[in-house]
Amino acid sequence: WLLVEQPGPWGRDALLESRMEERVARTLQSRARRSGVRVVLLRRPRWAEPGPRRAYLVHTAPSARWIEQLEVDDDGLLDLDLGVLALGTPPGVGRAVAGSVRLVCTNGRHDPCCADEGRPVMRALADEGLDEVWESSHVGGDRFAANVVFLPTGVFYGRVPADRAAELIRDHDRGLLHLDHYRGRCSLPPMTQAAEIFLRRELGERGLDALRPVESTPRGDDATTVVLERGEERYWVHAGREKGDPEHLTCSDRGLSRPWRYRLLG
Fold first, then answer.
1. Of 33, 108, 115, 253, which one's alpha carbon is 20 to 30 angstroms from that of 63?
2. Which of 90, 99, 81 minimizes the C-alpha distance to 32?
3. Do 156 and 173 touch, CB atoms closer than 8 A?
4. What is the chain's Cα-based Rg?
5. Separation of alpha carbons 121 and 102, rounded Å
6. What is the rounded distance in angstroms from the CA atom of residue 40 to the CA atom of residue 6?
7. Handedness of CA 78, 83, 86, 90 (dihedral sign)
8. What is the mean pLDDT of residues 150-166?
């Protein structure tokens, strides 16, 4: 991931519809696509002190997670080598971040749900004074707003109520997940994420890194067997997917779609 602080309003396509110079935005977009990098814009929460513009380089592989923070201007953004984000070791171009960076999607121009649900979460976190919490552009899954993302673990939470947001953050920092709101993590394929969630719920396992996926075997187009380990224990989880009922996927969606629904087969 590349996280870039960009104050001011964002449009639906935040990177290209912000106050960032168009030349810089389009160059970043092109380079990110070639490098397989996800670019997300950040805004400081309203209670934060102003300061130099920040950017974060983030690598989320389970076996090698890291974040580096830099202070950059537009030219500095264009000088970044996005290829370093594929490395298992930090490149040393910025300051290492020891803890987590937390993103709360508030990109209302992308979908009003994100602003309506995300901003109360930010206000609640303001009362707690937690650091490294940012408003972010679109992170996916508008219908799950409020969405909270933890980096570099890549953990996604959805439908986070404002009165539980601080608890989720503190527990994540202690290495514990909240299974009611856990949506999986970005470093795993969708079917593996589903299998991990099913097994966690079966075992009541909240440990952040307690389960390790070791193998995934497709069973046709819409089913997979995932093998996960917990210490010396090994589990086989059979997960499937099917098209759900027609629904609006976002608050601004005028048409109906049928998103994938994941189910435990055994």
1. 33
2. 81
3. no
4. 19
5. 12
6. 10
7. negative
8. 96
With CA atoms as reference, report the closest residue to 194 among 235, 230, 240: 240
Which of 116, 106, 112, 165 shows the shortest CA–CA distance to 138?
A: 106
- In order, the DSSP letters of 63-112 are TEEEEEEEE--HHHHHH--GGGGG-SS--SSSEEP-S-EEEEE--TTT-H
SS (H, E, C) 14-76: CCCCCCCCHHHHHHHHHHHHHHCCCEEEEECCCCCCCCCCEEEEEEEECCEEEEEEEECCHHH
- Cβ atoms of 219 and 180 within 8 Å: the answer is no
Residue the block writes with tokens 């389970």: 62
Give the model confidence (pLDDT) of 50-86 as tens digits.
778 999 999 999 889 999 999 999 889 999 999 999 8
Comparing C-alpha atoms, which of 2, 63, 33 is closest to residue 188?
A: 63
> What is the C-alpha separation between 114 and 148, in angstroms, rounded?
10
Q: How far apart are CA 111 and CA 251, in angstroms?
A: 6
Statement: the pTM of the whole predicted model exceeds 0.85: yes
C-alpha angle 95-97-101 in degrees, rounded to nearest 5: 130
Q: Which two tokens stand for residue 75?
A: 């030219």
Tell me, what's the pLDDT at 87? 87
Instruction: List phi, psi (to 5°) of 169.
Output: -65, -45
Single-letter amino acid code for the residue at 5: E
Distance separating alpha carbons of residues 66 and 83, to the nearest angstrom: 15
